[in-house]
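Sample pair:
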Amino acid sequence: MEDKTGIYISFFAYMLVLLAIGAYFYRKSKRGVSSYFLGERQMGPWVTALSAQASDMSAWLFMSVPAMAYLFGYQACWIAIGLIVGTYLNWKIVARRIRNFTYCFGNAITVPEYLHNRFHTGSPAIRFICSATVLFFFLLYVASGFSAESKLFQELFGMDYHTALFVSALTILVYTFMGGFMAVSWTDAFQSVLLFFTIIIVPFILFARIPEGSIMHVVSGDFVRETFFSSQTDNFTGEIISGLGWGLGYFGMPHILVRFMAVRSANDIRRSRIIAMLWVCLSLCAAVAIGLLGRVYLDGQGFTYATQAEAERIYLKFASELFFPWMGGILMSGILAAIMSTVSSQLLVVGSAMVNDVYMAVFRNTSEKKAVHFSRMSIFIVAAAGIALAWFPDSSVMGFVSYAWAGFGATFSPVILLSLTWKRLTLNGALGGMVLGGLSVIAWESFDIHAVTGYTSIVPCFLFSAAAIILISLCDKKPSPDIVNSFDEASKI
């Protein structure tokens, strides 16, 4: 009981900080929809960078990446490299452009609204399709977050799974309801600092506990070559491309794109990019190091994890065994930070899509106060649906995450990239590519085409979507002069 006291205090102190931030921003969210969903574009470079990366990194950073490194050695680096490259290109290519384009095209506050304004269309079709995509894939993402956090609560406090499910959902809902975008962004910034230091400290402690001879095995050229160029299957090329392909998902993640849209000035993007890249590189390297060093450490203890599911507990094991209870509680709060920062951001994006791009598109004369209230109701409904999907304790967390990541990567990434860089893009091309991208991911996952081809869905489905967008746009009539002029004006900023 004495050992648990430190963990409880650390955990509840962490929760109180989150609720305090939500309460502070509650008063600041009453000015309307733009404030609630985009913070009136007043985010500074540090908050932008830290909140963007915290909303990106979920429990997989602490659980799945170390587990892959533990089981397969340096092969885990392929996904890490893909994520690092994808993060850089997203900040370099997309961030500044989408900040300027969304502002110039009707001061759009959501991705669906931006695409609607981008083509000067009076039809709500693209907003409805975007909103349906956001709702479908984020429901899976939110459910995976609720499930992961519930299992963590169950592990830490011995709670019943379903009780833990309601507690975790309620905590996230409270500060999301209270403060909207600014509350979520500031809590994400706070959580990113906690997340960063908790993932960084564990490899150093492991390094100090492992004999020098064992460490030399991990960094030896033979071990690097054997694992970096090894394969779990006969399709080594497919595994490399699939691992690197995770980076393609970044261009279409609405909860990351809105951080770019909300930055105070496009001139702050460069500073944010530097901060974000340092954060991502160090965090992913630390996650891989935990798995590599962890295997050596546990082998010395005569302990072995046999499967991916078992190995995903490696960080929890080290947090509870290698640190004092107070510090162990803080380290475990890092996993909570990763999960909660992602889920809260996703809930807000879903709520904004349902309200701004569906409700307000139909009921044009509604007041902004009613819209904010309806958005909170929408977030509650989406959270309830997420609880229902996560109701079974054996629900797959990483399966949901990879499905949703591929869905956004194939549906939104090509159209976002082309909408910001290609003036010849047409509305029909965008609609056709988005529909094909989303349906191809669903078909790929439903019929397990990965087992036949050796490729996960994100890369081929991204290419299907991009090809459809380009071909349909080239066959379609050229965009109107008004659209071209708006594109040129936004590009000059």
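The CA atoms of residues 205 and 323 lie 9 Å apart.
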